[in-house]
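Researcher: I'd like a structural prediction for the single chain below. Treat it as a standalone chain; there are no partners to consider.
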Amino acid sequence: MTHPGRVFAVVNQKGGVGKTTTAVNLAASLAASERSTLLVDFDPQANATSAYGLSGSRPHVYDALIGERAIKEMTRGTELPHLHLVPSGRDLYGAEIELVSAINRERRLERALSEIRDDYEIVLIDCPPSLGLLTLNALTAADGIIIPLQCEYYALEGLAGLLETVELVRRELNPGLALEGVLLTMADARNNLSRQVEEEVRRHFGPQAYQTVIPRNVRLSEAPSHGKPILLYDARSAGATAYLELATEILNRLPAADSPVSPPAPAFPCEVAAAATPVEADDARETHHPSSDEGDPFGN
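Model: Treating it as a single chain, here is the predicted structure.
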């Protein structure tokens, strides 16, 4: 395996930065690389769930958080054989209130994932756009965080608060929590401001800023309405190419895999045949050169 149960939280308390877009499409790209991947939708808006056409799925992550169901009882198969999803739903909005007086409330997700994390090579958690109890649970459960950062003027605003929270979690709850990387999103190569933001981020974060940059791409904004990640919607788009490159960059940072490992059988198998295979994804990566299409990626 690459690293049994490596857990990454995709987090930014600022909305509209491509957080869910990144969680959804990075998960698909890792799976296309034949890495067993689990995507946990931990946002009550459940956009990652709808991005795979699974809105309204029950049970969902709320049931695991309050201890009513085991998380392995809610895994959903997707059109990509190496990717499973733990869905979310609106019930999760009430979790922060319900867990206020709970013992070890910040470790509920960590405990829920403990029974399943080593069944997957990589677990991605799509966090809500806030620094509340849900995000605290995700940071406590994670080995590292991925921060999507929009290439706009206010990109770095609020980032200090997030990094302070990460440091607090590292000090009090999760000493092993690391900054896995900062991902620049919604970049427009024609825009001077995008280039300036990129230069500032790279100067501040150095090698922790991914070399891959996600461009503005209209196909990324269209894919969720079809219940598909970009890789299954348009594997030759600039957005798909960028997320495939990001997956490769992340995998190259991890220990080398002995051999690809298939995930366990999901609790709810996917009934739809895969629309794109890893071979097709590799073809797209080899033949398509990223460009900056007009349009905004969907997600927050």
